[in-house]
Amino acid sequence: MSDFPVMTNDRILRICRGEEVDRTPIWIMRQAGRYLSEFREYRKKHEFFEICRNPEYACEVTMQPLRRFDLDASIIFSDIMVIPQAMEMECVMISGKGPTFTSPLDTPEDLDKINLSPDVNKVLQYVFDAITLTRKTIGGKQPLFGFVGAPWTLMAYMVEGGGSKTYSKAKKWLYQYPEASEKLLDALTTVCIDFLVGQARAGAQVLQVFESHADALSPELFHKFTLKLLKRIATEVKAKLGKDSPPVSIFCKGGHFMNNEFVKSEYDIIQVDWTISREQILELKSKVVQGNLDPCQLYAPKEEIEKATREMLKKFEGVRHIANLGHGIYPDTDPDHLRTYIDTVHKETQKAQA
Ligand code: 1CP
């Protein structure tokens, strides 16, 4: 790892170590993507998963938002679906629909048709190569995030076959086939751990776990099926990496009752969505808290974005804060409105030079 460029912007890493920073750092979930014309142009030439699998393409697309905006982090261009693909489930990206599985899991017998323990270092090596190349290309100007989809979120897609409003098919598994569900979730957890460890070894400097469908779960289901697995991910990743472990971040979308559980965990960063109150944020204060402007706020006129940004910053006063949105940026967002958000965070939080 020693031949990586020296970091010239390490605000996020400093915040995670509890050190002072000159201004609140900011990055954006889904900062590379369809709201950028250069990304849409690139996608005309290359299929989505072809970009993920080719380290040079993935690097190029990761760099696109960094060239436009004054961001404090990058996130490797990939998708959470690379894990189900590694488990030998076919998943294709359908325009206007999103990731789609050709043969979703229907009954527990279908678990025999997939590979529950893939050799991550072999089948996902392309992600590690993309991370190493991208970290070198960024040249120390921003730290690089690696990520995984959390086990429940991955299971939800593998059973539903794609996005869903209710996740009722996947929840049906939890109620009807609890043992098979646990078997699948446990296998996914092991893959998540190996994959995050590999990403850190390849050069990822922060790791984020996306539990994007936490909001489908009741507190009972959350406690029964996923909390212990999410905690295991942070604990085992850190145990395997030892003192070199990067900070690890957890995002349970829509899960306030879940956030408090991570105060007593190995996670360093808790990402929150826009529905959380100042009081709830303060309960997470012993951790770094990341978030949380509503991505729809970026549809408002620029003056209103500036005002909402100042209000958001106030909610995080006294907390170690990494600014972000409360969920990924939407494809029809005007990039200039995102610039207003980023620049306002920097301007409002810049400390006077000593
Ligand atoms: O800069 C970046 O963040 C880009 C890298 C990235 C990441 C971190 C992509 C590219 N996807 C993700 C994570 C991801 N993928 C999550 C977790 C974060 C979140 O909650 O938003 C999830 C749930 C997915 C699944 C996914 N992939 C969806 C949602 C499907 C649904 O209906 O629930 C979609 C639409 C995708 C496709 C996708 N992934 C990434 C991009 C740029 C796109 C657009 C597709 C395209 O270019 O055709």
Name its key features.
alpha/beta, 7-stranded parallel sheet, cytoplasm, Uroporphyrinogen_deCO2ase_HemE, lyase, porphyrin biosynthesis, TIM Barrel, binds coproporphyrinogen I, Uroporphyrinogen_deCOase
What is the topology?
Elements: H1 11-16, H2 37-45, H3 48-53, H4 55-68, E1 74-75, H5 82-86, E2 91-94, E3 98-101, H6 120-123, H7 125-138, E4 144-149, H8 151-160, H9 168-176, H10 178-202, E5 206-211, H11 219-241, E6 248-252, H12 256-259, E7 269-271, H13 278-282, E8 288-293, H14 302-315, E9 321-325, H15 335-349
Parallel strand pairs: 1-4, 4-5, 5-6, 6-7, 7-8, 8-9
Antiparallel strand pairs: 2-3
Describe this structure in words.
Pathway: Porphyrin-containing compound metabolism; protoporphyrin-IX biosynthesis; coproporphyrinogen-III from 5-aminolevulinate: step 4/4. Homodimer. One of its GO terms (molecular function) is uroporphyrinogen decarboxylase activity. This is Uroporphyrinogen decarboxylase. With 354 residues, this protein is of the alpha/beta class. It has one domain: TIM Barrel (Alpha-Beta Barrel). Helix content is 46%, strand content 12%. The protein has 15 helices and 9 strands. It has helices spanning 11-16, 37-45, 48-53, 55-68, 82-86, 120-123, 125-138, 151-160, 168-176, 178-202, 219-241, 256-259, 278-282, 302-315, 335-349; strands at 74-75, 91-94, 98-101, 144-149, 206-211, 248-252, 269-271, 288-293, 321-325. The strands form 2 sheets. A 7-stranded parallel β-sheet has the order 1-4-5-6-7-8-9. Strands 2-3 form a two-stranded antiparallel ribbon. α8 (151-160) crosses α9 (168-176), α8 (151-160) packs across α10 and α14 (302-315) packs across α15 (335-349). Bound molecules: coproporphyrinogen I. Coproporphyrinogen I (1CP) binds at residues 29-34, 43, 48, 75, 77-80, 93, 98-99, 147, 149, 163, 210, 212, 327-328. The site of coproporphyrinogen I has 23 residues, from β3 and β4.
